[in-house]
Amino acid sequence: MFSFKRLFSFVSEMKTPIEYSEKQIAIINAAEKLFAEKGFDGASVRDIAQEADVNVAMISYYFGSKEKLMEAVFEERTVNIKLKVENLLQDKSITPIQKVYILIDDYVDKFIHQQQFHKIMMREQMINKHTPVAALIHELKKKNLESIKTLIQEGQKTGAFKKNIDIVLMMTTMVGTVSQMLTSQHFYRSLNNMEHMDDMEFQRHIRKKLSTHLKNLFKQMITNE
Amino acid sequence: MFSFKRLFSFVSEMKTPIEYSEKQIAIINAAEKLFAEKGFDGASVRDIAQEADVNVAMISYYFGSKEKLMEAVFEERTVNIKLKVENLLQDKSITPIQKVYILIDDYVDKFIHQQQFHKIMMREQMINKHTPVAALIHELKKKNLESIKTLIQEGQKTGAFKKNIDIVLMMTTMVGTVSQMLTSQHFYRSLNNMEHMDDMEFQRHIRKKLSTHLKNLFKQMITNE
DNA sequence: TAAAATTAATTAAACGTTTGTTTAGTTTTA
DNA sequence: TAAAACTAAACAAACGTTTAATTAATTTTA
């Protein structure tokens, strides 16, 4: 009767990317949207089912529970979220500071394109509980930090970067600035009289704004100018 | 029977600081703690009542509803949250950049001393709904920004500051960096092997770290060095 | 290949809890 | 002795989840 569920946990344990059916994807999309808007407790499974246009029971049937659905959202959305530093490190034709610039653009892009999911991540980090989801975030952050550390050290070897750089603090500023912009974008929009802009145009605007702003900050933080 | 409640909404409309009884303060403190930990929907009124060591009915009795309790938390905690820029502006014996430094320290201090409440504010901003609480945040931000604008303009007149400064973006970085540090302080702590530190010592550490970091950033952003 | 058997997908309804709030009564205070 | 403070119990609504039944799809059998 419930063989599908059993198949699932098996595949999940293997850490193989799970192939979801149309309905399952619809549920994950709806969950992402409503978790981002209302938070985990604020979004009911009935809300999610309606948004996904499926029967409520399908959520338990496919994912086991609301909690597990959240985990599925995370596993689905974190698959391609890693920063593309690995390839960057090899490339000898790009200067260290240019690599940092590319990384900033990459991060800003990822954040803007996955606003809903990043909102969920922010909320989950606030809760500060030892859930599977919290572990996933921790792991993700640590890996990203590790890669950036080697990238910075490369610049330090060539003498282009300063010796004493607090990378964690630097990342805190990057992540924090972008998060804060996302969180308060309506405030930012009304303050700059940009209500007339359509969403796409506005997002292109803040993308550019954040990109140049962070590049300026980072340049002065890490280079010997 | 419910004259107390009626007295309340009256006082609230007058924008006069409300004097709460011991029990009411206990409820507000408990609500702040649990709203910060679990979010508005995650914290039940029974949780809050237990934490405050009062009967569940007292919450409705004193505050009318859970929603209104949240508003009470906000009105109580935002009374003294405004940055002390007003007094700063008058003082002629302090240079503009020193004023900015004082402002940064003031903000970092307020944030660290009211971590729980700031967590609630962050969550509420994410929801992005036109609630009384959202309006309160908006108003607060606008006033702070207004004061800072005049402070910056003062520095620009004397020629100490650059001409083109994006104040909103600057504030986004300050608020964002501090918020992100608060949100991920456990991550920061484990990364820097500071688990042995007691909480007070650790908070003094990040207070100092944030302060010098933000001052460096701001100096290079706004002065002609 | 057609029929039968089996499994998977889907549904409406019901489950037992928990939710925020109210009631009706009691105790305390002034 | 009237108003305020406080309580245990009850309230209906909403919650996440399960059940039992039905339809759809797939596999096995003859």
Helix content of chain A: over 70%
Q: Determine the CATH superfamily of the largest domain in chain A.
A: Tetracycline Repressor, domain 2
Calculate the terminal CA-CA distance of chain A, rounded to whole Å.
Answer: 67 Å
Element-by-element helix/strand order of chain A: HHHHHHHHHHHH
Task: Please state the oligomeric state of the protein chains shown.
Answer: homodimer
Low-confidence stretches of chain A: 1-14
Helical stretch count of chain A?
12
**pLDDT average of chain A, as an integer?**
90
**Any guess at the CATH architecture of the largest domain in chain A?**
Orthogonal Bundle
Task: Determine the structural class of chain A based on helices, strands and strand pairing.
Answer: mainly alpha
Number of domains of chain A: 2
The chain pair forming the largest interface, with residue counts per chain, is: A-B, 42 and 42 residues
Radius of gyration of chain A (Å): 20 Å
Return the CATH class of the largest domain in chain A: Mainly Alpha
Strand content of chain A: under 5%
- Largest sheet, strands/sense/barrel of chain A: none
The gross shape of chain A turns out to be globular
Short description:
Chain A has 225 residues and is mainly α. Helix content of chain A is 74%, strand content 0%. The first copy, chain A, has helices at 3-13, 22-38, 45-52, 57-63, 66-77, 85-90, 96-113, 115-127, 132-157, 167-183, 185-191, 199-222.
